[in-house]
Design goal:
Layout (H helix, E strand, L loop, with lengths): L20 E2 L2 E2 L6 H11 L4 H25 L4 H4 L1 H9 L3 H14 L5 H12 L5 H10 L6 H22 L7 H13 L4 H9 L5
Antiparallel strand pairs: 1-2
Helix pairs in contact: 1-2, 2-5, 8-10, 9-10
Length: 205
């Protein structure tokens, strides 16, 4: 694995807060921003926007900590956390710090939105329709590739029938039952035409 560079606001292994003295003991070490990002990506795939939001919370907390220490005059920041003082002097902007880290994670293939889309499709396509899946991806700022979009479209009817059969299994015999089944499938994000075909019954493709 390549050596991970140190970005502004981050130290090599632990955060600035981890090195603050607490009485005669040291605070339990905390993950640095870069280590936290890699840990999150090791747990599951993330979109860039999702990872940005998570890391920004921690980056802003680090900046606030350094500012509070200086304002309270508990000790000069340079004495308590020299790396934090140096980094915040150079780049006090947590957004820029996080963007630099995200760029590096993408360049070294830790962060990959193609893998994120694949993992999301694997987890969602068996339970949800194309409308729901597209909406979720849009919330992450990503879109389906042409191939993925075509595959979802061609499989949606079969997926909807599978979801419908596990929930109901029988074609409705009255308008109330038909409306109930259609609402359920719409809530799962299936396309209107697919919903009509499933609830109508039959094997038409």
């Amino acid at each position: 694995m390549p050596k991970i560079p140190v970005f502004a606001g981050m130290t090599e292994g632990v955060s600035a807060e981890a090195r603050l003295p607490q009485g005669d003991a040291m605070v339990k070490p905390k993950l640095s921003l870069k280590a936290r990002g890699i840990q999150l990506l090791a747990q599951r795939e993330h979109s860039r926007s999702e990872l940005r939001a998570k890391l920004l919370r921690h980056a802003r907390a680090d900046v606030l900590l350094a500012q509070q220490l200086a304002a309270a005059a508990l000790a000069p920041v340079s004495a308590v956390a020299p790396d934090a003082a140096r980094d915040h002097d150079l780049d006090p902007d947590p957004e820029a710090t996080v963007e630099a880290l995200l760029d590096w994670l993408e360049a070294h293939h830790y962060l990959d939105e193609t893998r994120f889309v694949e993992s999301r499709l694997h987890a969602r396509s068996g339970r949800y329709g194309n409308v729901r899946i597209r909406q979720e991806l849009a919330q992450h700022g990503v879109v389906l590739s042409d191939n993925d979009a075509a595959a979802l479209k061609s499989s949606e009817l079969a997926r909807a029938r599978d979801v419908w059969s596990r929930k109901f299994g029988d074609v409705p015999t009255d308008p109330a039952g038909r409306a109930k089944q259609m609402r359920f499938l719409a809530g799962r994000g299936f396309s209107p035409d697919v919903i009509r075909r499933v609830v109508r019954g039959g094997d038409d493709e």
